[in-house]
Amino acid sequence: MRPDEAARLIDLVHTHGSPCYVHRLDRIRAAAAELRAAVPADAELFYSLKANPHPLVVEQITRLGLRAEASSTGELRTALAAGQRPDQVLYTGPGKTPAEVTEAVASGVELFSVESVTDYQRVADLAEDAGTRVRCLARVNAGQATAGPGLRMSGAPSQFGTDLDRIGELRHPDRDRFAPLIGCHVFSATNIADGDALAREFAVGARAAAQAARSLGIEPSLVDLGGGFGSPFARPGNRSAYPHLRAALTGLLDAEFPTWRTGAVRPAFESGRFLTGESGTLLCTVLDVKQSRDRTYVVLDAGTNVLGGYTGLGRLLPPRAVPTVLSTPDLPGEPRPLDLVGPLCTPADVLARAVTMPVPPPGSVLAIPNVGAYGLTAALTGFLSRPLPAVVVLDGGGETPASARPPGRHYPESPPPVLSPLPARTIG
Ligand SMILES: *Cc1c(COP(=O)(O)O)cnc(C)c1O
To answer: Which residues partner with 296 through β-bridges?
Structure first.
């Protein structure tokens, strides 16, 4: 990292406290352009708010013409406040509550991905109650597996979607009236760095979507093939490059949905991490360095309470953060294996095991790169009731924080959760 860049980040820590997230909107713009180039030219692109629902991030994504994929009232409100048109939003999720669906319909959301007969019936009933019509995508569990390094979300048994061999059960005239099925939705894997593996995943998904449409007896107008676009987490590196993917997708759409070139069937793709992963950096400070037996522990003021990446769930990403030391770029001492741990009172609060670097003394400011997706949203923010970190959003290399909103606002905008004790109550 250039010295002036490091100095600027250290300044942000002085101003906004440590730990502190920094998101750069210019990197999101670059990612969105790359994603567009990787898929057919007139495909719809959805941004999964769960990766990073910061209002300024969602506002930027919206200005780039990407549509929001929301799975809760909170995400929906964020999307609408950021300027998303409700008729552009795709509402997804395996456990939509009646209250959520009611609010979504009342807000003007017109497109729902439905995961089961019950989920579909609920959406249809609530659309009818509201005296309106919505449109639905049948989410399909594709039922086939291709090998890939990412976390598969369907293929084998899955809590997501409806198995391909039962998908026909979704179709019913009552549901059709207020919530017609206009297409299919597949999302089977995430973070697939290899372009060929990703193309194979899309091929399986497209075939499943086409078969599902036949089983349902519908002429789909929208086919959401999901995502899986890769981006590194908490270590240096770049988004995956997919130079051949557009051609592969064009071929498989020709094979499975021959009318797509006329515009009769619109393909859609989704991403969270590819769009925002590289945009985010977590700045934190070394509190202590201690030796225990043969291990050196570096205790940071940021742990799994502010940095998720699903590690807290024991899935997907082993703890292997690789930070840059900003405050002393040329640390004396030989690189040696260090365990980076957070401040939480659990041995599970580990951001890296045996990362090789010179020992950063207490007070050092570290930067953990590529944490713009699933940084805060997948973190155990309630654990130990620490305050949420400030989130600073920058645009370009200039000094001005993006938009008129002050930098360093806490996210979410409501006060941190779980800090108020339950009222005392005597039982018996
Ligand atoms: C989580 C999710 C995504 C985004 O996944 P990324 O790996 O962040 O791209 C897209 N679609 C659905 C349905 C999801 O659940």
So the answer is: 291
| Start-end of CATH 2.40.37.10 domains in the chain | 3-21+278-427
* CA 271–ligand 1 middle distance (angstroms): 6
The predicted-structure confidence for 26-78, as pLDDT tens digits, reads as follows: 999 999 999 999 999 999 999 999 999 999 999 999 999 999 999 999 999 99
Residue 345: partners with Cβ closer than 8 Å, 6 or more residues away: 384
| Average pLDDT of the residues in 414-423 | 37
List residues bridging with 355 in a β-sheet.
Answer: 338
CA distance to 4, 71, 140, 392, per residue, from 45 (Å): 36, 16, 19, 26
**Peptide linkage before 220 cis (omega within 30 of 0):** no
Query: What region, left, alpha or beta, does residue 58 occupy, with left being phi > 0 and alpha being psi -120 to 50 degrees?
Result: alpha
Residue 92 Cβ contacting ligand 1 at under 6 Å: yes
Candidates 3.20.20.10, 3.50.50.60, 3.40.630.10, 2.60.40.1080; CATH matching 25-276 = 3.20.20.10
d(CA 304, ligand 1 centre) in Å: 21
Give the distance (Å) from ligand 1 centre to CA of residue 48: 6
The verdict on the CB of residue 190 being under 6 Å from ligand 1 is yes
Q: What is the mean pLDDT of the chain?
A: 89
Tell me where in the chain the CATH 3.20.20.10 domain(s) lie: 25-276
CA-nearest residue, atom 2 of ligand 1: 48
Q: How does pLDDT run across 385-401, given as a tens digit for each residue?
A: 999 999 999 996 554 44
Run of H or E including 44: strand 44-48
233 lines ligand 1 (CB under 6 A): no
Q: Which atom, in ligand 1's list, is nearest to the CA of 150?
A: 7
- Strand pairing report for 266-271 and 181-185: unpaired
pTM for the model: 0.91
Strand segments, DSSP code E, in 125-237 are: 135-141, 162-163, 181-185, 222-224
95, 117 contact by CB (below 8 A): no
| CATH topology assigned to domain 3-21+278-427 | Lyase, Ornithine Decarboxylase; Chain A, domain 1 (2.40.37)
- Cβ pair 350, 319 in contact under 8 A: yes
Whether ligand 1 lies within 6 angstroms of the CB of 285 is answered as no
Please write the tens of the pLDDT for every residue from 197-213. Answer: 999 999 999 999 999 99
